[in-house]
# Entry
Amino acid sequence: MDSEHAPAKLNLALHVRRRRPDGYHDLETLFAFTDFGDTLTVEVADTLSLRVEGEFAGPAGAGADNLVLRAAHALAAAAGVEPKAALTLTKRIPVAAGLGGGSADGAAALRLLNRAWGLHRPLDWLTELAADLGADVPACVSSATSFGTGKGEALVPVDAGVAGMPVLILNPRIAVSTGPVFAGWDGIDRGPLDPAAGLDASRNDLTAPALELVPEIATLLEWLDSRPGLTLARMTGSGGSVFGLFADQSSAAAAARDVPAHWWSACTTMRTAGCDTRA
# Structure
């Protein structure tokens, strides 16, 4: 049996530049990843199957639309092999939460089955294959901090200065669909994202339309802003999760102890690139 970590994704910043004729949006974003995430395991089998367990197993589902199975079929077709594996996904990342959980799981499936099936394809090859699975999946293949443009699939590695920082992630336990949030964007280009300018000079342009749909997100951001030791509070992706970066572990732990019981939370650290992702 082999296993693969599927780190939760954070958008440290997300600038939406324009709506494209094909319905997508051109954006600029800073992807970063945490040590918190899902786990995917594989065992030898004569057919392809997926079992999902954990707190968010129900919303994730184990049907054909699960990105783990879609990634497995895409990899098998591209490599010319039969898709045979018994996969188990331990689902800890909330669904429809702006944390890229499904994308992380799909990317983990590409890495894990690349090894299990003896394909030995490089990460760059897997990243290119991932582009057809979803906008966030390519970034999740390497799970490294990167500057994303286009739909988010054009990636350049960057150092955002957050590796190893304590982070507290909160979610109001309300699922937020990406489509309605993007549809609520006002269409105003507020300017480019400069990855070298520092996080204080950036923003998430989807915060306003997400708050229109789920006002509870504002409560989470206000709560984080009041915590001692906080250096940045921001919504990730299209919501409804928010994150707080802290100057030290004790401040993050103190905040985590005070999180209201009806919210979902995870207190973790920002991932160091390449620490546990291998093809």
Summary: The chain has nine helices and ten strands. The beta strands are 2-19, 25-43, 48-53, 85-90, 146-149, 154-157, 166-171, 230-235, 242-246, 264-269.
